[in-house]
């Protein structure tokens, strides 16, 4: 039933401000703010469900400055998508249009201003065009100024 509720897919780059996260963790505080800054979730275009016949048999990849940093199959996920959706549904209502991030392959690392990130997914060894993301990391101004407390 869970898989039938899925309308389509997308690829996202889930960014985290590690300095903010580390400080919050050290103080026993929630660290969700470390993921909530402007531009911290670049997301691909909509990928029709028909383009991904088995989401547990897809390769996710990410390159930084044209060097592959992540490249692993979704078959390595600790929990399959129906289990993840069931667990999430225990504490919140999932509705049409909601986006659920299911995890990331090994290879998470730092980025710096000027880095070029490219990500996507492949089915049967072929890249799915709608999945591609190209992001140039840049400094963004804003109201928030991080200072250790």
Main beta sheet strand tally, sense and closure: 5 strands, antiparallel
Rg calculated over all Cα atoms: 17 Å
Q: Could you state the order of secondary-structure elements as H and E?
A: HEHEEEHEEE
Count, helices: 3
How much of the sequence lies in strands comes to: 15-25%
**What global shape is seen?**
globular
Unreliably modeled segments: none
Report the helical percentage: 10-25%
Key terms for this structure?
149 residues, alpha+beta, five-stranded antiparallel beta sheet, two-stranded antiparallel sheet, 3 helices, 7 strands
Any overview of this molecule?
The protein is α+β, with helices and mostly antiparallel strands and 149 residues long. It is globular and about 45 Å long. The longest helix has 9 residues. The protein contains three helices and seven strands; from the N terminus they run αβαβββαβββ. Strands 3, 4, 5, 6 and 7 form a five-stranded antiparallel β-sheet that branches.
């Amino acid at each position: 039933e869970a898989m039938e509720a899925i309308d389509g897919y997308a690829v996202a780059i889930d960014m985290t401000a590690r300095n903010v996260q580390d400080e919050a963790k050290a103080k026993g505080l929630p660290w969700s703010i470390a993921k909530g800054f402007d531009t911290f979730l670049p997301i691909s275009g909509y990928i029709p469900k028909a383009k991904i016949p088995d989401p547990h048999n897809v390769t996710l990849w990410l390159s930084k400055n044209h060097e592959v940093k992540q490249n692993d199959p979704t078959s390595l996920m600790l929990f399959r998508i129906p289990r993840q959706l069931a667990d999430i549904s225990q504490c919140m209502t999932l509705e049409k249009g909601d986006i659920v991030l299911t995890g990331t392959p090994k290879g998470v690392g730092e980025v710096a201003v000027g880095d070029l990130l490219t990500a996507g997914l492949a089915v049967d060894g072929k890249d799915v065009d709608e999945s591609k993301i190209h992001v140039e990391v840049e400094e963004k101004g804003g109201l928030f100024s991080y200072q250790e407390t």
